[in-house]
Specification:
Length: about 325
């Protein structure tokens, strides 16, 4: 009997949608079971970190790692799974670009805790208690991971072999990646597994010359189902977004929001999208241009960096201490792997 390859899946700073997406391949999950022995998947099966630590270096053939790195525990697991895995895949937008959790980089740890534990209308916390990395109790010391000021992408923490984008990756793209792994048809290390074209390239909507006098929010207009959404004044990120989703959003009259990230060669998705939109505004008057943008795009950060802030050139709102200083300031360090 041929020995199965070993597969691990891990969930860091993300919503969990990538875990569900894996099951979206439906009955093909049985083929995964035929080919792989799943040695670690905390969302689905009981497994201990110490079991992973006992594995030989490189014993895991493939690890699908979803989520960004927000805490010391997640950093430790990223380094551990990198050491134990032959192939490490940044699975989904959070691991790839930071995604929605990365928008918290517009704030720092103190500001996040202020909102989460004090300012929300549903929070009752008269003693102003916040999570601590160490808490003494009659039965011993309780420990929590260090919550970092800055969320990092997976490849800002450890070397990554491949990227599978999407929020979450579509089932067809997941199966494409699994097939490529099984058939040893993977692209060059460091590549994004998937299409190289843009959502616009695969969209069936009719396109002519774009001249925008006004940007509309999605609730302000019922768009023509046949015409390019951007030409109708709706901010559609398809012009800057990698294909692979099947143009699901534009096909139901909803604009692309950019969850598959930038195409090859683009360092900063937000800058690419901003440049594309600037080129279609029909005005030479700076004040008029400013009015069009302010009226139609009230949340520039959420529009241009909804998925890619942590992975882009900006990364966060202002300078923060480097990782080691941050850990020491919190009274903890990540154990060596």
């Amino acid at each position: 009997m041929t020995q199965k390859a070993k597969l691990a899946l891990y969930w860091a700073a993300s919503c969990g949608g990538c875990e569900i997406a894996v099951l979206g391949i439906n009955e093909k999950i049985l083929k995964v079971d035929e080919a792989f022995e799943i040695v670690f998947w905390p969302c689905v099966m009981d497994g201990k970190v110490r079991d992973v630590e006992k594995l030989a270096d490189g014993e895991i053939d493939v690890c699908l790692f979803n989520g960004g790195i927000r805490t010391s525990e997640q950093e430790y697991m990223a380094k551990l799974l990198r050491k134990k895995s032959k192939v490490l895949v940044a699975f989904g937008s959070c691991a790839h670009e930071g995604c929605i959790p990365g928008l918290a980089n517009l704030s720092n740890r103190k500001e996040i805790f202020q909102v989460a534990y004090h300012d929300t209308p549903s929070t009752i916390n008269p003693d102003r208690i916040e999570p601590q990395t160490e808490t003494e109790t009659p039965n011993g010391t309780l420990h929590l991971p260090v919550f970092y000021d800055t969320l990092k992408t997976l490849d800002q923490t450890v070397p990554v072999d491949y990227y599978l984008p999407g929020c979450p990756p579509e089932a067809e793209r997941i199966w494409d990646a699994i097939t490529a792994i099984l058939e040893q048809q993977l692209p060059a290390p460091g590549s994004v597994i998937g299409a190289k074209s843009t959502v616009c390239d695969t969209c069936d909507r009719k396109r002519t010359e774009k001249k925008i006098k006004k940007f509309y929010r999605t609730w302000e207009i019922i768009p023509d189902p046949e015409i390019c959404l951007l030409e109708q004044g709706i901010v559609c990120a398809g012009v800057a977004t990698r294909a692979g989703c099947g143009t699901l959003c534009p096909s139901v009259n909803s604009p692309c929001i950019g969850c598959y990230g930038p195409t090859d060669g683009v360092e900063d998705f937000g800058a690419m999208l901003l440049s594309a939109l600037a080129s279609v505004i029909d005005s030479d008057d700076p004040k008029e241009i400013q009015r069009i943008i302010e009226d139609g795009i009230p949340d520039p950060a959420g529009t241009f960096y909804r998925f890619g802030l942590a992975g882009g050139l900006l990364r966060r709102s202002h300078f923060q201490p480097n990782g080691q200083q941050e850990k020491e300031a919190m009274g903890s360090t990540v154990p060596e792997v």
